[in-house]
Structures are given as structure tokens and as C-alpha cells.
Amino acid sequence: MTNHSETTGSAENGDIEPTAYDRHGADHQVTLRTPAELADALPYLLGYRPEDSIVLVALHDRGGRGRFGGRARLGIPAGADDWASVARQLAHGLVTGSERRGTRPEQMIAYVCQEPAPGETGRQVMERLRPLVQNLRTECGRLDVTVIEALCISDGRFWSYCCPIEGCCPVDGSPMGLPGTSVLAAAATYAGLQVRGTLRELRSRLLPWETAAALEQEAALDAAGSALVPRILDDAYRADVAHETLDLARLILDRFAAAPPASGALHSDLRDDELLAHDEAATLILGLQDRATRDRAAEWMEGDEAVPALRLWRALARRCVGPYGEHAAAPLTLAGWVAWSTGDDLEAREALAMALGADSDYLFARLLHQACNEGLDPESIRRCLRAERKDRAGVEAGGSGDAEVADGSVPQGVNDSDDAPAPVAAPAASRRRRRTRTADGVEGRARSAEPDGSRPRTPAQGTARPGGTRPRTSGRSGSRRHDTCSERPLPGSSGIEGDG
Known about the structure:
The chain has 500 residues and is an alpha+beta fold. The protein contains 18 helices and eight strands. Strands 1-8-3-2-4-5-6-7 form an eight-stranded mixed beta sheet, sandwiched between helices. The two termini are 22 Å apart.
């Protein structure tokens, strides 16, 4: 254990290896022993820098050392009346989630992160949030899990709520270390890990435009809706619309793939926006409201297809402007799926949460969001989608008369509802449910009752649009989201080992 006189962050603090670093061998480890090191570790534990966040980190005992387990984050409610319920939700969710994985946490570390309001100091933020931290400690205690450290991070400084020594910690807090200068930062760099900016910056890549161009895009969506929605709802033309949508998407994927690289997220998004015309975006957004078309598009999930596909889904989400906010559920879900499939759990969770913010009944997003948060392996879903793609290629090559028709339905009398997939293969399950309909069960007319948000949508502007689909509200607001004692060793521990 370190003493107050020791320098934090030195190489003498011992070693530990988070599982995220496993590929680099067991010789590169970092042990965290002090509140200063824990404050510095938070962005590396989450993969981004949290703002206005409550974060709980589970600790598991391994040979007398705490080892990092699951993490849970919620936004800090504006009203203090909601703090107790949020603390209860966060503590219960992390403990029960850990138990489902077979390891109940023995201890917790709590963080509250918020920047001062105008005229407010970091110390005042710390004092204002003290009741919230006490709620967290109380709720964890009710679950027989001790909070061994609770930190407030604000205005470039941190405070410990758990220091037992009066006068030990500076009243105005301890300064945070310079980013990238700690031993943990060096270990993360060696491991190839990067800390994103903030969630706000990540979400900005997926939020609808609020520029003058949004009006032009809305007009293009109106025009495309008048032309496409009646065809999507008509059995005779639905398959044609699906083929046209996918062909156009493939054309734009190739265009994106051939574009010269751009440095930084902002320049990359601006480049993609320039490569995508308003009418093209409108056609794709409306075409993807059909579930069968969306599921076909989900097959662009790996290899050389994944990166341009993710860029396209982000670009389409940004084009769901004005009254078309709910349409963003489809491209946001596809963005979340491709991000998860390619190993970016952070963007996956944010995109899927935003999809549910756009349409809380969108079943595909809900299932993927749950699976991602449960830490399940997306490979089982990839296998289902690969099999669908392979089977369809075989059908198209063989031209069998008893195979699926182009829109993904099954000829009359065929019912495969008994072929229930495993829970992790939820997207495949949604397709199998669709196939149980016979040929006279018209999908377009039944689509308004679909639970996964796959019915064709038209803008709610007070007038009836072709197809008579239900009006809906905009999802513009994004996702609904309900993350010194500087030298003092943590109580009862010789260090904390992270497990990634």
C-alpha cells in the first residue's frame, strides 16, 4: 500500500492486467491504490470521459486484491427528488447484472462527474452532490456491498467523500493529473486502447441536422414518402421497393468506400454528408422502414463492408430531420448493430439507446441493446445473418419454386414458427416470426401492429399521407437516458486490479 508521502502513478505501484490487455501478455500490469489513481482511471474504465454522470464500478476479491468488474452509468437527474430512485436503480442494476454473470461484487467504487454551472465552483458541485453520493452508499449497503471509495470529479479536480481523516484532503480538491501522463495511460496506449471524447461528442455524430439543409432534406423526405409508402404497402410492389433500396444502398457503400480518407470524426462526417444526396437519403430512410429490407441491410456487418455501412447508417440517422425523427430508429439500430459486430461496444450502446429514444417499441433495437449490455457475443447473430445470406444466394441461383419469395415471405401453408432460435439470435427470430404469415396475410397492412417499429412511417404533419400509417412524434432529442487524500491508500486493500 502506498503512504501519503509516496508519489502516485509511479512504476513502483505494482502491476495488474485488465482483460482488455490480455493479448499483450501477463507482464504488463497496473495496480491502482489511491483515490488519485482511481480518478485518473475513470475514462479508461468507460472508454470515454463522462459528463453529468453517476458511475458505479464493481470490485471482485481475488487473493485479497480488488479486481474491476462491471460498470454502470446514469445521467445525474436535474431534480434532487429523483436522486434516491436513480441510486437504487443503478446499484440494483449493477449488482443483479454481475450476479447473472456469476460473480457478485464484494465492493464498489462510486463516481459523480459534473462541471460547475456559471458562477459555481467545483467545491460547491461536490457539496451539492453529497446527498446523491450518500444515496448511492446507502443503496449499495442495502445490497450488502460496501462502497470503499466515492469521488467527485469537477472542474479539473477531485474530492473524496470517504476520507476518514479530518483535514487530510485539500478543501478545494486535488488537481487531476495531465491526460495521458499516468502509468495507466501508458499501459492503455501500449494496449492500443483509446479514450473517446465525451458521450455528447459521440451522440452528435448520430443526431439529426439542425442546419438550413435540414429543410431541404425534409422536403426530399416528403416527396419520397408520397412516392414510396403506397408501394411499400402494396404487395405487388413491396419486393421491388426492397430491391431498389438495397441496390441504392450498395451503390452508396461503394461510393463511400472509394472516397479519400478524412482526419477526425467531424471531417469524416462532413465528407459523407457531401457524398449523399437529399433524395438518396430520403429513399433509403423510407425503404429501411420495411423490416425485411432492414434485415437484409444488417448483413453488411463485417469485413470490407462494415466501415462504409456504419458511415452510411450514421449519415442516414443525421438526415431524419423534423417530423421524421422516429424514422431514425432503423438507421440508428443498424449503426448500433454494425458497431457491436465490429467490437465498438460504446458506440453500439449509444446508437441503440438513441434508437429506442426515437421509437421505444422498436424491438430489434431493444433486443440488440439488451444483448450488448449483457456482454453477449455477437457472433451467434452474425452466423444467423450469414446463413440467411447464403440461403438466399442459393435460392436465387437455383430458382426453386418452393423457396422464399423476394420480400422474405413464405408461400401459403408454410409455417416455421416451431424453429425457435436461441435468445441471443433475436434478430433471426424476428424474421422467422414474419415467415409464419401465409401469402394472404399481407405484411404491409399488418405492419402497423408490429412491435419492432418496422411499419412504414409517414410524416405527421396534420394531413393524411398515402398508406394511412399512424402519425408519430419526432425523436430529435436522441436517446432517453435515465456515467486528499490523493495519496491515501484505499481501505482494506493492497491495490485494485482492473479486469477491463
